[in-house]
Design goal:
Shape of chain B: globular
Order of helices and strands of chain A: HHHHEHEEHEEE
Structural class of chain B: alpha/beta
Number of strands of chain B: 12
Helix content of chain B: 40-55%
Strand content of chain A: 15-25%
Strand order of the largest sheet of chain B: 2-8-7-6-5-3-4
Structural class of chain A: alpha+beta
Radius of gyration of chain A: 21 Å
Largest interface: A-B, 21 and 33 residues
Largest sheet of chain A: 4 strands, antiparallel
Radius of gyration of chain B: 22 Å
Oligomer: heterodimer
Order of helices and strands of chain B: HHHEHHEHEHEHEHEEEHHHEHEEEHH
Amino acid sequence: MLNYQPMQLEAPDEILTILSRDARTSPEKIAKMLGRTVDQVTAAIAEFERLGVIKHYKTIIDWEKTGVEKVIAFIDVKVHPAREVGFDKVAERIYRFPEVQSLWLVSGGYDLRVAVEGANIREVGRFVAEKLAPIEGVMATETHFLLRKYKEDQVVFVDNEEDTRLVVTP
Amino acid sequence: MNNDQSDKVPPLSKIARELAPSGIRKFFDIAAKMHDVISLGVGEPDFVTPWGIREAGIYSIEKGQTTYTSNYGLIELRQEISKHLDKRYGVKYSPDSEILVTVGVSEGMDLAMRAIIDPGDQVLVPEPCYVSYRPCVSLAGGDPVGVVTTNKDDFRVSVAQLEKSVTPKTKAIILGFPSNPTGATMPRQALQEIVDFADKHNLYIISDEIYDRLTYEGEHTCLASLNNAMQRTITLNGFSKSYAMTGWRIGYACAPPTVLTAMMKIHSYTALCAPITAQKAALEALRHAENAVEDMVMQYNQRRRLIVDGLNAIGLKCHLPAGAFYAFPSIEATGLSCEEFAERLLYEEHVAVVPGTAFGESGAGHIRCSYATSIEKIEIALERMGRFVEKVAPELISKIKADKTTVIGTQPAAT
């Protein structure tokens, strides 16, 4: 079973907003931005990490620019839910594969949406045919290959436009 | 031959000849020619207008909405402005007779002056203040009377000061809070006292509240919401700052019907109406952009604390501005005048700031630093400014360093 207990916050802490936009913002800088002490900020972050509110820090990379070939596919999966555990059991069997980057339960014609990453189309195809489709409870799949990234996690994948404002204005 | 001809051209008007050029203009010309300038001199948001608003503007063009509107502005927009002011401040302006959509607050200020000022009338202008207030009074034939505010009072204006400057010729007072350039805001009680002062001397109050949403400490008070204020107040506001819409040139004026009708008459001959595309976009802004506003305000607030902390750390004493997006530190400790400071900082460290005197003589000894720029740029600017201060006033920095060693731990942003 997935253990989900929402944390009781009066208002979302601005520390989280700052880190969600730039995980490398230092506690010293956050302290200045929010008018708190460095100790307060460090303690709050440690607490968020302990509670699992902050899950992980990652970097968004434009792999295309590095020349690394990667294939990403979104696979919609129709699932026959099992008694008592619903979709969780099937979800667990799917997300354990290291190829699976993300997995969501969604509404609509399909139940699960899987994001899979592989070196090439063949590899992803094999994953779907040999690993995903045969899982008990999986009734149907529909695979969408990613063709181009425009924006990911609020980051636009085209180069920023210049600041066109006049240098000094009233 | 040509020269001969131009000699025969009549002279420009006295008012145009005597109008002082903007103190900012001079500075802009130098800065614009330099590369690698980090500008803290910009008086407009670095954010682009939120996409939903831009999209509404585009859609209106696609639909072929390219006509004039009513002189007053689109009725839907006036209704939405009326609702907005009622909801936020409990101020009730009638969309039919008390709201005029203008080409920014700039036009609103001009209309207000022309509607109420006769030649020889005096207008009290607390300074330092936005660059257009004095010229707008002069253009209407009036005499601006500066009322000095200082950093000792957090650049707030008091009735005691106003009483010293009021004469039988005084017709109005212009208030611009939150303030460009000082970032000062006025507490509700102090504003009520000014309303009572205006009541006593029978003055109009022109309240420029363009930065109302950018208030970080406490709540903004809409002047018209105070007791007895409505009948003598012209409220000016717009979309430029809250919604990052400076280039759309869209604002509004609210006033009692007699005053507003006079302003509308002038507007109908000089501007006819505000651009319809901007009006459509403004409508979208009021209806669906609250989240975007709140996010921008949050980011300005973070930068505000960061820049004020940074300025104090390099010896430029700075009160915590409660509104707008400007820090207004004193540079007196460096021994330079604000013009020298700004000019040398630009030439030697490629950081553009605006000398305080651009906003009135009482701005002397200060510079305006806009934090409507990214945190990364603010940090680089602070680093360069620190280097500059160290060069021109080394003793200032060593004093701060000596003070710092006595403090244990890091303190939150100075207030």
